[in-house]
Amino acid sequence: MTAKREKKTKKMRGTMSHGYGHKKKHRGAGSRGGRGMAGTGKRADVKKPSINPKTYFGKRGFTSKKFKHPVRAITIFTVLQKLHQWASQGKVQEKQGVSIVNLEALGFNRLLAKGKVTRKLHITVSSATPGAIERVNAAGGEITGLREVAADSPAEDTVPSAEQAPIKRPENRASAVPAKKPKVP
Fold first, then answer.
1. Would you say residue 133 lies in a domain?
2. Higher pLDDT, 177 or 65
3. Number of domains forming the structure of the chain
4. What CATH number is associated with residue 97?
5. Is residue 73 part of a domain?
6. What is the CA radius of gyration of the chain?
7. Angle of the 130-138 helix axis to the 76-88 helix axis, nearest 10
8. Can you give the pTM of this predicted structure?
9. Rounded CA gap, 119 and 138, in Å?
């Protein structure tokens, strides 16, 4: 059975630091340059070989939930460029003058509208911009497997069109800003 020990604080009465060196130590992250990897920024040349930049710097331990599914986009122009190559590899089928392309199987999940459609295309993809859908349909083709229609450009939604009425602003700017209350002594 262990004997009942007296607390360290009672033994250290009158020693100021209670056995932790200087009186300012034993307060948290002080006297050691901060917590974790703090203070490892600029060091002399002798310290540089001991720091591996691939593992030493940067953030760790958190994965953003914002981008779970990365967008792998391809343009109509690129599809038409690679069509012959994919056909020779057996990744694209030709039936009655229509090229059947499965972009999901090729690793792409969005079709963008850049480029002119010069032949009938039957494309399977999960997401496409409205411009891409319009161009493929105008050439006599179709897009299947759509789960969402992506916006052409996120900036288009924020820019007001010329048809919208201009924003009304007061002629006298001073009337729009509330007057400051006078200080009471």
1. yes
2. 65
3. 1
4. 3.100.10
5. no
6. 34
7. 60
8. 0.46
9. 10
